[in-house]
Specification:
The structure is a homodimer. By secondary structure, chain A is α/β, with parallel strands linked by helices. The first copy, chain A, is about 35% helix and about 30% strand. In chain A, the strands form four sheets. A seven-stranded parallel β-sheet of chain A has the order 3-2-1-4-5-6-17, sandwiched between helices. Chain A has a seven-stranded mixed β-sheet with strand order 10-11-12-7-15-16-18, with helices on one face. Chain A has a two-stranded antiparallel ribbon with strand order 8-9. The longest helix of chain A is centred in the C-terminal third of the chain and has 18 residues. The relative contact order of chain A is 0.16. Chains A and B meet through α9 and α10 of A and α9 and α10 of B.
Chain lengths: ~375, ~375
C-alpha cells in the first residue's frame, strides 16, 4: 500500500484514481472542483484536493509527501508540470502527452535520482511497449500503428465524439505528421494518405497520417519504416479537410469582433467541441500494431489487435480504460520494484524488460483490456 | 435624357450606373468612398456622392432633385430605404432584394402617387417577368426556376465564389425554403432535395431548395406548382450541410472569448467570405425557367435558358450584367413612359404587358444577355 497523488481529474485521471484506490492511498488533485466532487462521489476512498499545477511552489508542496506522482494534466501543461515534479525529486508516471520532447528531461531526472515513465497510455503507450518488446526478439523492418477512439453511435457528418480533450484531437488534424520510410524522415500534412482498412467487430474504417510516433523516432532510429495513423469512421477525414482547406483551422488572428481579435481555429474549436462532446454514451477503442521483420533468418509478422468497449457497469469510457489502466499498470509495476533505472523512459524502453511487459499486459487483461496477438 | 440617382455602388450598382451614364445624367451614391472612386475611375461621366441611406433626411434630400431613383443597397437596408423613397414621392426601380414583403408598401406608393418596380434583377426578376408573360398566354400548371452564379474555375471544397453579397448567400442556406405543390405551400429546410441537372456549356450541376419564390407566392397563387432552386457545382451542397449540421450556422450567441459573445454563424460568415471572395476572375450566370400548362386545350411547355459569362472587355461580372441590365432595362422602360401604373410592382406584374416584356428582353439582348426559348 503506497501513497499516490494523481494530478488531473479528467476522464482518464479520474478512472486511474478509482483503479488505484483499491490497493493504495490515493489523492486526486485538480483545479476543477466539480470534476473532483464527481470522482469523490463515485469512489469515497479517494481524497480530493484543489490544486493549480501552474503554481510551481504549490504543486511541489502538494506532491512532497507521496511515494509516486501519476500525472494526467492537459497536454499543454504537461512539460512544465513534469519538469517541476522531477525537480522536486519525485518519481512519476506521466500520460500528459505534451508536444515537447520528454527525453530532453532525461539528464535532469538522473541528476535528481528520479524515475519518470512517460507516454504510458494506449497510443502513445502500448504501441511503444509492444515495439520495444518485439525489438528484443526480432530484426524489425517495419512498424505500423493504427489507432482511434470512436463513438458507438455514428452521427452525420463527422461520425465522431472526442474521448479525450478535443484540443488534442484538433492538434492531430493540424500538426504535420512525421513517419519514417526507408530510413528517411518524411513530413506530410495531417489527414493525408487516407486508406480504408477492415476491423473485426467494427467494419471498414479510414486511416490517415497523424503525428503519433513521438519518442520512437529517436529511440528506434534503426528501424527503417515506422508509421502511425489515426482511425475514424469513413467520411470523417474528408469533412475535416473541407474545414481545413477553407480556412476554418487557420491560426492567424484574422477575425475581429467588437474590436477583439481571434483566429478561425479558436472559434472552430469551440463549435466542434460542442459537436464532438462525448456524453454518457458508449464508445470504443480500436488499435492494430503491425510489426514485420526477421527472426532467426525467417520472415516474421506480428499483429496486436485491440478492440475495447465502454464499461456500462462503471460508466468508465473505453479510452479511459485503455489509457488509464496502462498507466496504473505502470504505477504498480514501478511500486513493485520491477523498474529501478533512473531517467526518463518512454514505453519502448520499458518494453525491453520482458517481466515489465508481461506485467502490464496481464494487468490490462485482468481489467478486460485484451490484446489479441497473431503471428505469421 | 433623365436625371437618375443610383443608390449603392456595389458590383451591380456600379455596373448599372455605367450602363445608364451613356444615355442619362447619373449620380452614384454610397457610404463607401473607395467603391465610388473605383466606379468614377471607370466612367468619368458618373457623378459620385457620399451618402448614408440610414440617415432618412439626408437620403430624402439627396434624391429630391432626380427623375428616378435606382436602388441597389444591401438587402438588410432595402425595405426602410424603399419606404423612405416612396414617402419622398420619388419613382423608384429597386433590386435590393430585402427579406420583407415589398407588396406591403403598395398602398403607401399609391397614396404618394409613386411607381415602384421591385425585384427586377435576374432571379428574382427575369423569372418573374417570364412567368407573368406566359401567365397571359396559357393556363400554367407548373413553374420552376433553377438559377445560380458560379465561378469559371472550381476550387475544392466549395467550388464557389459569391457573385453578390456573401451575407445573402448564407441567408439562402439558412432561411427555410417555401414552394407550392398541388396548391399547398410547403416549407422545407434550405439545401434540401438536391438533384442533379444537365446544362449545355457547363455540364452537371446540383439544384437544391432555396427560398426564392418571394412575391409570386401571393401574386400567382392560382398556379398549383411553383418552385425555385439554387444551382451549384456538384458537392457544394453536401459540404455546406456539413457546416450546417455541425453547428457552424447556428445564430445562437454561444461563443465567448475575451468577454465578447458571438454566434457560430457570425464567425463562419467571416471565414467563408474570405474563401468565397470573388476576385477579378471569370464567373457565369446560369438560369432555366420551365413553365408547363395548357394553351388552347393543348399541353405546352416553355423553357427559357440563360448562360451568361463575365465580360473580359469591361471587367463587369456576369451577375452584374444579368441583374443590373434587367434593372436598367426597367429604368429605360419606365422613363419611356411604358409603365404608368402607381403602386409597388414585382416583375410578374410588369410581364403582363407584352411591350414591357419585349422591351426588357430586347434591351438585354443588345447587351449580350440572351435568353434561349424552347417550346414543345
Amino acid at each position: 500500500m503506497s501513497k499516490i497523488i494523481v494530478l488531473g481529474a479528467g476522464m482518464v485521471g479520474s478512472a486511474m484514481a478509482m483503479d488505484l484506490a483499491d490497493q493504495h492511498t490515493v489523492v486526486l488533485a485538480d483545479i476543477n472542483k466539480e470534476r473532483l466532487a464527481y470522482t469523490k462521489h463515485k469512489k469515497e476512498a479517494i481524497t480530493i484536493q484543489v490544486l493549480d499545477v501552474n503554481k510551481k511552489k504549490e504543486l511541489q508542496d502538494a506532491i512532497s509527501d507521496f511515494d509516486l506522482v501519476l500525472c494526467a494534466v492537459p497536454g499543454f501543461l504537461g512539460y512544465e508540470t513534469l519538469k517541476a515534479i522531477i525537480e522536486a525529486k519525485k518519481n512519476v508516471i506521466d500520460i500528459s502527452f505534451f508536444p515537447e520532447d520528454s527525453l530532453s528531461l532525461h539528464e535532469l531526472a538522473i541528476e535528481n535520482n528520479v524515475t519518470a515513465i512517460v507516454d504510458i497510455g494506449v497510443a502513445p503507450g502500448m504501441d511503444n511497449l509492444i515495439l520495444g518488446r518485439l525489438n528484443e526478439e526480432m530484426t524489425i523492418s517495419s512498424f505500423a500503428c493504427y489507432v482511434g477512439g470512436l463513438p458507438k453511435i455514428k452521427k452525420w457528418p463527422f461520425n465522431y465524439k472526442a474521448p479525450f480533450s478535443p484540443v488534442d484531437v484538433i492538434e492531430e488534424y493540424t500538426r504535420p505528421a512525421r513517419y519514417v520510410e526507408n530510413g528517411n524522415l518524411v513530413v506530410k500534412p495531417a489527414l493525408s494518405d487516407v486508406e480504408l482498412m477492415e476491423f473485426d467487430g467494427i467494419g471498414t474504417l479510414e486511416a490517415f497520417n497523424s503525428d503519433g510516433l513521438r519518442s520512437i523516432i529517436q529511440t528506434m532510429s534503426h528501424i527503417p519504416n515506422m508509421i502511425e495513423k489515426t482511425l475514424r469512421y469513413p467520411g470523417h477525414c474528408e469533412y475535416i479537410r473541407v474545414l481545413k482547406e477553407s480556412g476554418f483551422f487557420s491560426e492567424e488572428e484574422s477575425l475581429t469582433f467588437n474590436g477583439i481579435t481571434t483566429s478561425p481555429l479558436a472559434l472552430t474549436s469551440k463549435i466542434l467541441f460542442k459537436e464532438w462532446k462525448l456524453g454518457d454514451e458508449e464508445e470504443l477503442t480500436v488499435m492494430r500494431v503491425l510489426v514485420e521483420g526477421k527472426q532467426n533468418g525467417k520472415d516474421k509478422r506480428v499483429t496486436y489487435d485491440l478492440l475495447d468497449h465502454y464499461d456500462k457497469k462503471t460508466a468508465i469510457s473505453s479510452m479511459s480504460r485503455c489509457t488509464g489502466y496502462t498507466a496504473t499498470a505502470a504505477v504498480n509495476m514501478y511500486l513493485n520494484g520491477m523498474w529501478k533505472e533512473k531517467g526518463v523512459f518512454p514505453p519502448e524502453l520499458i518494453g525491453k524488460d520482458k517481466d515489465c511487459f508481461n506485467f502490464i499486459l496481464e494487468y490490462l487483461f485482468q481489467r478486460g483490456v485484451v490484446y489479441a496477438v497473431t503471428e505469421n
